[in-house]
Fold these 4 entries.
Entry 1:
Amino acid sequence: MPDIKEMLPFLIPLIIAEIILLTVTLRHILTHKNYKHGNRTLWVIVAIVGMEFIGPVIYFLFGKEDS
Amino acid sequence: MTAFIKKECMELTRTGKLLILGIIFIFFGILNPAMAKLTPWLYEMLSDQFADQGLVIGEVTVTALTSWTQFFKNAPMVLIVAILLFSGLFTNEYHKGTLVQIVTKGLSRNKIFISKLFTVYGAWTLLYLVYTGITLCYTVYFWGNDGVTNLAFGIFMYWLFGIFTMSSLVLFSALCNNSGQVLLGTGIIFFAFILLSYIPSIKNIIPSRLMDGLTLSTEGAVPSDFTEALICTFILIAFCDIIGVLVFNRRKL
Amino acid sequence: MTQDNYILRIENLEKSFGDKKVLRGVNLSVPPKKVFGFVGKNGAGKTTTMKLVLGLMTANAGEIFVNGEKVTYGNTKTNRFIGYLPDVPEYYSFMTPKEYLSFCGEITKMDKKEIRTRSEELLKLVGLGEEKHRIKGFSRGMKQRLGIAQALLNRPKLLICDEPTSALDPLGRKEILDILVAAKEETTILFSTHILSDVEHICDEMALLNEGKIIMQGSIAEVKSKRRRNSMEIQLERKEDSDRICRFIRGSIKTDRINIDSFCTIDKSAKCIILKDEALLPDILRYLADNSIPLIRIEKQEATLEDIFLEAIK
């Protein structure tokens, strides 16, 4: 395992980006009642399980209602 | 026309699309050097396994090239994410009927089409710059930039490939009625060219050749090797845009 | 009136979708500064006609002139004279009403100052002056009202409304009608509907579209007078008296051969006589008085647009 200190310049921004992405997605899911497909529980699970980035992308493509 | 571009930009920011795309591009921008940094450790783990099987892997040293290898490896990923999020650029408006009102207000269809085209080009350029910029900063900071040749040209070519993909996305947006069809069409074009690149006789002249920017550093390729592919791509971009605008002018909104 | 004084003129317009002929030679002229009701049942071709006027479809035959200029498909220049309110208007939901109006203003190349004053004036007119929220959560009625505001923004010569009231509750409908009446001051309004009471309330002229043809056109009074004379309804207390009256009518017109139905009919409960010729009324009243026949009511029946509509599309 490389020195964790050496990895910090990568880890910190990555984690921040992750957290922002997840927060934006979850906030969107939780503040909307209707979705194009699926329901709230499904989307929360998708967003968290696929959280490195694919979950939110899938949600914004297939879950987010148009207006 | 500026009003319509302004509206497109407002849409990108207010619907959160730009934010999502921005974060993902930043994420991958950081991931490239991070993967490079982790490479020795990954090899170490693997070499233990290989050692059991009798294979010996030598010492690996990480250079700027390792980071740029990751850059070109992840670039299709960010491009696909961009395609996914832009697939509804036209079709959402067909679906809602919002363009009908704009057209009845006397904004010409050409202008609508060109505005949307510029918006995706602009967004792709901006996001790609962010992606490149972040990887560049990290790479230069950790390893300097030795050992990579004609990097800027390689990066430019990938950008152009992205522009080509976005043009085909817009063409399919003019042709199709829903975002699924747009994705299918663009996806077919995208993967068709990747498959075609396995045919030696045409591999050097089709747009997918532009994804090989790394060979400028690794296999001693020179920019002039890409002339045919560049010309071909420019022609295809023009073709997509012109056919797109003609189709859009005649289509039912 | 010369031809080009009409704000909208449609000549022999034909349109088919596949085998289905939707419009079979529509002729229509709309004079300026009027509220023009475009009536027809669902599927009669109202929306198709309007879309053709807006250049959103190609016609199979015929010509359309807006303010004297010919309409072409695709990028038609005539749209600068027109404000359009679609049946279910949709907007960019991420904008506020004010932002949407200024966006529309910029598209139509109005100057900044004009956009500001005009949108404030219109938002006030449609009752959205204080609305700071984005369009996202708007109700049907609010969207419809915003639709009128955006359609009137660049002072169009012709306002086209596609069923503006059909999907609304009675209150919402009244609001829209009031706004349209107010808008009449500055523009010509062509509005399609199948709600006839709306036409009676606010329209000056109307045209009736049925099976792809205009079967009636004119001012409301003209249309009403063209069809069916006013009739009288006489309701009696006893059933047998109805027959007596009928016999009397037959006697007073002095012939058996004429079909009595063209003068009066008895409805099924046999308590009501519908008299189609008012000229007979004084005689009948005298007969009722002479024979002391008990009476419930005598009422003049005005032909409503509903009757005319139903009769016309038979």
Entry 2:
Amino acid sequence: MLFVQVCVGSSCHLKGSQDIVELLQKAVEEYHIDDDVVLSGSFCIGKCNRIGVTVQINDDVHVGVTRDNFREFFKKNILDEIKNEGK
Amino acid sequence: MRKFDTKVQHLKYKVLREVARLAWADKLLENLLDIPKTLVPGKEATMRCCVYKERAILSERVKIAMGGDPNNHNVIEVIEIACDECPVGGYEVTNACRGCLANRCEDVCKFGAISFDQNHVAHIDKTKCKECGACAKVCPFTAIVSRKRPCQNACKVKAITMNADKSAKIDNSKCIQCGACVYTCPFGAIVDKSYMVNTIDILKKSERAGKGGNYKVFAVVAPSISSQFSYAKLGQVITGLKQLGFHDVIEAALGADMVAMAEARELSEKGLLTSSCCPAFVQYIKSNFPSLVEHISHNMSPMAVLAKYIKEITPNAKVVFIGPCTAKKAEAQLEEVKPYVDAVLTFEELQALFDSRDLDLSTLDEGVLDNASYFGRIFARSGGLTDAAAEAMKEQGIDFEIKPVVCDGIEACRVALLKLSKGLLDGNFVEGMACIGGCIGGAGCLTHGEKSKAEVDKYGKEAYEKTISDAISILK
């Protein structure tokens, strides 16, 4: 089970938290992994970055997630992780 | 740059700042008795009859800055020795009366209370006078004045009376903690208790302080902050808050967005609602219109809703609300709010906190603050809540015609509630705010002015989200 928290603090918010939340929701639906992922928001994770949004997955913090690199991020840190967990 | 409206506020601030300095340094208990002399060092009295009285009053101010009398549950306290025992006589004729021939005062008095002596000088018969003030209005020499205490004038719920020794006395069963008397008293004899020392303590033990603390402290700031600290940019205030030790700063306006959505639904279901955002207004209904309590919105205030949300998604979080309001200090002590809000500060107290750490806001980098929509942000001024509720109806596709009655100031609220209790109110949603102008007129504001409303609207328009749904979609 992955706990995915998208930062909605002011800094990330202005850099598009909302887009990332939407993309995540759609992607989770598309891959039918809603049993494996819990999506939630979080206020400032404390890693404010110049570009992109901060996303925390379990204990790992990922900075700089944007619309452009979302697919890559999603595959590497969520889809592959779920596969690994399943093994 | 002027930070406060009055010297009374400035004095209160100086006490708060000194208390805060000592609290940060863990020296409060040893040194608190020295504060009065630090602030009034000289031999010459500048405020009262002598420096000793000045210092005695300052000791009382120190006490209130540290939380006040624990046996008095009211967050508003009178410093009896600071009360100047102002006259209470009501309307009186002064020696400016020239004994004219027109005698308009006599003509206008419906109660026959005015008579004249052999010099044609007017006199008011106090047994007949109803204190309507009509005579004062018509006197061409403005010779008739109302000798009413400013605190009693300001207190629209009539909670202020007099002790046997003539000092002001607050009836706790009537007081709604709006703070009008605090801001009004020209001698600074009525003061709101401060939870600043608790806040410093919370910050000192937090994760960010780096001494093994295991919790984060969130500052929830009221939207009226946009009309305050005008000598610096809002972004600099945010950076200043983080330098004080807050982990993050979140707009109470986000809570307002959440409340607007829920309140719109509640209104459409119940068909009649009075708003629940202003704790002084809610308390006013409870003590004066008990039959209308059922119409009070069941939603908690934006402060409480947001604080609850923060604590739900962040383990061990602590929440400090910072706003213009003294009544919020009382709200935070309610059983249903207590678990979510750890302390409440006013903007006055925040200014003292900044200066106790020698933070010059105008030299700091600009942080960002953006969590809420235009509609959440304009809650700070009268009429904003109504606009937000109407927008929330629209966004949720609720077909309900909202007929708002917007009232700011307790007198306006009283009129609306009276009509409502008699079934004569033309409206189905009462937006009540105890302070004139809404929260921007709050007693804990550093400055109160005409510009405040424009500042709040401007800040609202700068919101990244234009709709309420956008602002809260992220939370689900």
Entry 3:
Amino acid sequence: MSYVVTQEAIDEDLHLHYLSCSDCHAGNPGAVDQAAAHTGLISRPSDDPVAACGTCHEETAKNYTLSLHYTAAGMQHGVSARFNADEKKIFDQKVFEQSCRSCHASCGDCHVKSPVVSGVNSGLMDNHRFVARAETQTCALCHGGRVWPEFTGDYGGMPDIHYRKGMTCVDCHSGNQMHGDGTALTSRKDVTTKPSCTECHNLADLGKDSTKEAHAIHEDTVSCSACHTATAYRQCSSCHEGKGATSSPAIILGRNPRNLDQLTTLRLIPTVRDTFLDHAKPTMSNYDALPNYWDAVPHNVAKRTDRTRDCNTCHGEHTYYLEADRIPEGLSTYNKELVW
Amino acid sequence: MKKFVLILLIVALATPAFARGIDPVVSVEWLEANLNNVVVVDMRKIDDYKAGHVPGAVSLLGLYIPMAGLSNEVPAADELSELLAEAGIKANSKVVVVETDGARFAWATRAAWTLVYAGVADVAVLDGGFAAWTKASKRVTTGQEFKDETDFGVKFVPGYFADKAYILKSLNSAQIVDARAYDTYFGITKQGFVDQFGHIPGAFMLPASWITDANGLVKPKAELEAMVAAQKLNARQEVIIHCDSGVLCTAWWWMLSQQLGWTNVRSYDGSAQEISKDPSVKFVKYVWR
């Protein structure tokens, strides 16, 4: 017979050494039969971070309750401008609370067991030991549709240069960013602790004179990813609830919807006009208030790309540029604003 | 006497494989005994590498990348130079390629082929891959290791490589070898990215899976020679090997060129993925050579 928690794990892991099972999972440890022992059992104690982890990790747990990983507020607010007030209420109640919210991550989803994704439960990461970081078993699962395989090269192309040098998520995305800083955010774009390339790469000192010159010319109007994204990344389209979306690889360059003066890499986000229509879910009266293309950092960085090698890629050929006549029909009219 | 010297010269020039400073396939025991004299490059996922690797091995990813609609292409010369230089490789280095296991032998040879094509002559593949290393209970190191960067710059060896134009003009003169599985060659199955069932007319079938045994280890040289002889391939005539997307073909390229010493063998990395889309090439099916 094997145990969920081994004596070896108890000896090695501080949490398991000093806490009993019932300290976190409740239940009745004095009972002898399973039904009685499991009375009041809490299977996912860190769904309440403050109660479960806050006793020792007070500030982190408190901050985490407001973080995007926990609230999933990005999913709620990212689309909200497409609804009028009545539609928004329906969305919040029938879509966000009943569907999107289930994607929130508890402390344990990143530090004890892999998060359940699309019904697949990969189970405990290391015999219930608490792990500080295990990106391939945590981040890679929730972000496994786009960013992670683009980072590792599994979606095609050269693996990101940072991955090739052994860096994974937490090397750039700090614990503070993951846990939040106590501010209730509505979008990942509002995270102040997210990394930027220039924290490590000083453009004034980087490379040959021609490289310095290219950076000086472009840095105010072109994002790093626009030139240094190596290969085509996933573009999703036609999302319908319960029916999934279709996707294809492409690099798309256009105006950053959050900063129209900047050229950047855009990702097609799959909300279509009738995405939520099944089961009398809300219509989107203000659908055209938001674009379908959003600024994205594909995490497929290379020092050299066809754009860094040849100015003509952009300045002559306009390769990869979003063009009005290539925007799929029926999408938001806002998209045309993003054509450079 | 002059004739004898001339013959010696021809033999010496025509058989670069015999001038190797390292066997093309090395065993776990050999690698363990020679760890200080070689650069070990680990081709596995970075997480697998960091969890445990051959002591001193460096991670080396990105030797074959999708490009222009093809799945496995050689990176641009400047990019490849930088990759190899950062791995501590020089033109005269002895390099051992480590893949996951014997099932990934062709992926190992794809990396090894890229290295020799780039101008690194002494390259070997670890027989059985990292699985053989751990099965033999050899010491492993965790985390990531780095080597001092060299000034290596690639000098491609054109004779190892075929592009579509080259194979098209050689269809009637070279021996075209198809390294895919025999049901693919015969036309029963095909990959989704290949447009035609079957094989290039006249192609010799030589599946890459024939190279390794049930334990994932490379079969003895005599067996490989016997297989090649049974398929009636001629060592003195040019060979161009292809597969579906430029990986499996390097397994037989490695064996013929580096192990058996054949001197006129090219690998076509565009393979069936590319040439099956060319309207001038009509694959044939339900026919053996």
Entry 4:
Amino acid sequence: MSETITQQALRALVDEWIGAGTKVAGPSYVKKDLCQYVPLTSSAELLLEGFIHPRNSVKDFFFPRHEKIYEYTLKGHEVELADMTPASTPQVIVAARPCDTAAVAILDAVFNWGEKDEFYTQRREAATIVALACVTHDSHCFCTSVGIGPDAEKGADVMLLPLDGGFEVRCLTEKGKTLFAGRTQPSDKTAVIPEGPKVKVSPEQVRAALEDYDNPLWKTATLRCLSCGACSFTCPTCHCFDIVDEGNAHGGCRAKNWDSCQLCMFTKHASGHNPRNVQGQRQRQRTQHKFRIYPDKFGEVLCTGCGNCARNCPVSLGILGTLVELCAEMPKTVGESK
Amino acid sequence: MSNIYMPDLMEVVEVKQHTADVKSVKIKFKDPEKQAKFSFRVGQFGMYSLFGEGESTFNICSSSNWKDHIEFCFRKTGKVTDALWRVDEGDTIGFRGPYGNSYPMEAWEGKNLVFIGGGIAMPPIRCAIWYALENRAKYGDITIVYGARTPRDLVFTDELEKWAEYDRVRVIQCVDPGGETPEWKGEVGLIPNVLAAANVPAGNTAALVIGPPIMIKFTLPVLDRMGVLAPDIYTSLENRMKCGVGKCGRCNCGPVYVCKEGPIFTMEQLNALPADF
Amino acid sequence: MIEEIRQTCRTLLEAGTVNVVIAYGQSNPDGPVHPIFVTKPDDVEKIVWNKQCFANLTTYLTRKEVKSLGKAAILVKGCDARSLVVLVQESQVERSDVHVIGLACEGVGEPELAGKCRVCEVHMPVGVDVTIGSTEAAAPEGQNRYALVDEFMKKSPEERMAFWKQEFERCVRCYACRGVCPLCYCNQCIVDKNRPVVIDTSATLKGNFAWNITRAFHLAGRCVSCGECTRVCPAGIDLRMLNASLAQSAEKHFNYRAGMDPETPPVIGTYNAEDKENFIR
């Protein structure tokens, strides 16, 4: 036995949410060949099939790329500050891939340890995440290598599993039950989700390989990296940010902006000293942070295998390729001198 | 609910210029109640805001026993410090903190202390020196070795003289060879050499060494020969920071977030970290 | 053709003529093609040449990590060769320091040819040390190389503004466009300078307009239309339209096309008393 909903009924429900003033976001084609998670104005924009993974991630709705943290007004010697912590507004993320929903659960740890980041937690608490299980994957997907899978429920309030003409609906939390209450039909069918991508590495293997901090791989395999932030910014778990002031002589705002450890300015001191001056060091940092530092500190691997790093990399240098090389007995020697 | 990135407004009480590009600033909370409640431990740092320019990280260089204000010291080297240079008495700046760990002043009780600083590194040592002197009976012999390129690059020079007046305190000032002026009465030589020649008794000793990496590098072997070992040598890391509260990821170095688990580390701890600082 | 490419590279490495070959490779047969750096003669077997060889490898010639490998040979398509010409003209690359292997190219992208290839005029690269392969492919007769721009300019200014707002709205400021561009070689990019802040670093409409327009202007009279910025943008922004528009201006007003001829002095950086000023409004 299972609970199901037809695609038509689901779309009607999404339109109801939108009509009721709830912010709803989901995957959509924003232009030819570009699928992204975006705020939806109608369920007609929502993609429920025929896509692998949007080019961005759902972190955009919890940790936006630019966010005012307060506004300041300058008045002679005096300064006035206005707190910009967002009001708690209900939002629904619909048809999020399991690798994206899992990422949100993983990010909870860093935004909540010690001091709470209210910008993140307010949005998180007011959000309901409806995940959509994957029936296909591409060569970039590797969720199964990091302990997640095509129907992994981590971080989701509801899981939708494709079934002829509609979905099996699994409500996993109270929030999820409330959202779908009375909207599903009992059925004797249950969805069968095909296996995900073949397992290529294990987090334990990677963790062990990363013990060798000075692995020559960092000098070779990363040579082609162009030092941009495409991987970090489209990664569902990368969460580093900058804090900047922007305004004029009378006032302005202080904002949190996405930042990336791959950009050369990230660690550069005003004195000119840069602890991670070479791209290989920056690649190493990103990998270490995801598979050793974060797991050691927060108990979770900071990667959900979504493959967006490779999908969006100008030179196809995804983290999976690096992990595979790292775990191979001898690092391959592409580009190695001597 | 609270916005952890929201600074408190502070009034600038006093600005003091130390060298051609170093100033220290005394500030107090605009809200007297907050000033009264505020406490910190020496070695901790704060995030100081100049609105419209940004935030910068500096150690709180005053003693935690001083209740009516806090001080910080900066060198004019970047966007925020350029702007801070123009700050005057009566101006408003922002402050978040205190953040990070602190010097183990309790664990150091009963020990001899050696403070070694180079150039602009005196401020983060100064808070510990004052704290120790204000609790003079709790600590053994105190040796302060402070050097800079030239006499004009030394900061808090008036206080160096005050410290020397305390019982069982030895202050050794030095400038780099060639940096000395005709009036210079201190030592001439690089800090590691001056320290080596100073015959500092080093049993039961904790050392705090802050300065340029090259100075630290050559000072460590001297301390080692003196018998001060890595677990007893402390320093403060200066990784770039933005949030100060372990979120933004910038100060991450190996397993630690310097803003949370640092900035104070023993040499033993540093030796176990990757060299990303 | 691939065997000839590999053999040429092998010979160069074996003879010690170069220390590294900057080429195309593929980590696995189904995977994407990506840049590789071959330093051992036997590794030339990893080199591939197919319809997926989009990357303009000349972007690596100015990168310190790659320079540290020593003297390089590089594979270039006709469009890539044009950016090399500009790099040499702008004194970023010493031509004699690089061994340039030109590849006859009938276009990349499958099943559909990349947009730039459909109007390509440089199927046979110029200014190279050796050319491998040959092709009869040629530019369509009487084509308008700025057809896209002309079409776009038929829209009203309001419509065009609305288009760019929509495009720049998506920019996340990852700087993939800057990273991949061979001509974005500034030691410190203006957006990384903060005294003063000229371009907001925030990915807001204001900051994004400032960034993308500034970058386009910095490429005016320099961009060779390799199309890499547009290919790599994770937000799918149609950057080539901006660049093409400026290239059109350079051609219209100064009869200049970047990277077509090493002997023609670059339009930016050449003063001519006859220069028209009527484009300044």
